[in-house]
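thread: overnight batch results

M.L. [08:02]
morning all. the overnight job finished for the chain we discussed friday. pasting input first so we're all looking at the same thing
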Amino acid sequence: MNDLGADLFELAMSEEAQPLMDAVKKHIADNVDPITEEFQALHAEKKDRWSWHPKQLELLEGAKTAAKEAGLWNFFLPDAETGEGLSNLDYAYIATELGKSPLASESLNCSAPDTGNMEVLERVGTPEQKEKWLKPLLNGEIRSAYAMTEPALPSSDAKNISTSAVLDGDEWVINGEKYYISGAGDPRCKIMITMVKTSPDAAPSRQQSQILVPKDTPGVEILEGMQVFGQDHAPRGHMHIRFKDVRVPKENILLGEGRGFEISQVRLGPGRIHHCMRSIGAAERALELMIRRTTTRTAFGKPIIQLGKNLELVSRARIEIDACRLMVLRAAKAMDVLGNKEARVYVSAIKAMVPEKVCQIIDQAIQMHGATGVSQWTPLAGMYTGQRTLRIADGPDEVHHMVVGRAEVRKYEGERYTALDNVLKIKPE
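M.L. [08:03]
and the structure it wrote out:
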């Protein structure tokens, strides 16, 4: 194994980051876990589903203030002046811990879709764009959305965009529709990074641009909140949005005309790995619930853990979580060593693997809980739908398998005389 290959398997958390990890665990135990049940219960007391109960914001801001005071803020932004300078590998360990709690990520300002949007703004935004939008996002003062997916086109192809932006003097005029825009229902959401087609006659990968669109711009119409397995996830929601003659300054374009697909690759790589990091935490939580349930309840004269194949399922869950964890850590290390673009195959591998495996583990935990598993008495139902949705979000499983498979086949390009040819006595021309 060459030095680079060996380096990709150096997966331990750095000694410098370990105290940070301990502090994150303490923050969750002291400031997040104690407010979670009350926070969730307050949803039922709201008069308007698409708003926050004042007490919810008070609880959340209290946790965020505690995190800031402890220096636990913006970990997601590796090696940046605005972040903690964490490597992707170190952040992977922390994000896994955040995935165990529904409020932990936001309490540290490490929630999607803001994390990906902030990384884009930090990497390619102008000083003016950073001052106006990145600064309040980094301070946790506002939320954001990423508007790419469209109802009329398969979004598995990131180049598949019909929403148009035409330059009219000093303004971009935007027309089209987006849907499943996560977080756009949140009253705190103030800005959307919007994928548009600006150059229809250019090469396929140069037709798109990304433009900053304030949510309150005239012509931005939220049509409805899309449901996910029957839940609208209000107030954040997943919104169906129409852009009708929406005008924004030409300076709102990111990086330049025709650079949209390029930016999407900058954004989606880190976003995908962050999702997978948090998924590991969700799997650990599901396994914990599975074991606590089956070791404390008896049926047919035995603890449930001893019935059927339950013990084997626990074993398989443990093995698969550890395998997923190692794959995620290697992808994070690849991003640190190779860069985001060059690590794309590693990222696609975990995006294809991790949500599917975590879905299976959560499903098994639900089964072992019986009717309770699909009820509001456990978080498992919501955890399952979240992971099942993740198999579609940021590229469906099939696209990521295509990326990995294509990369594997390329290793053999130029080899016409294969082992099979030899067996069949087929000679190259």
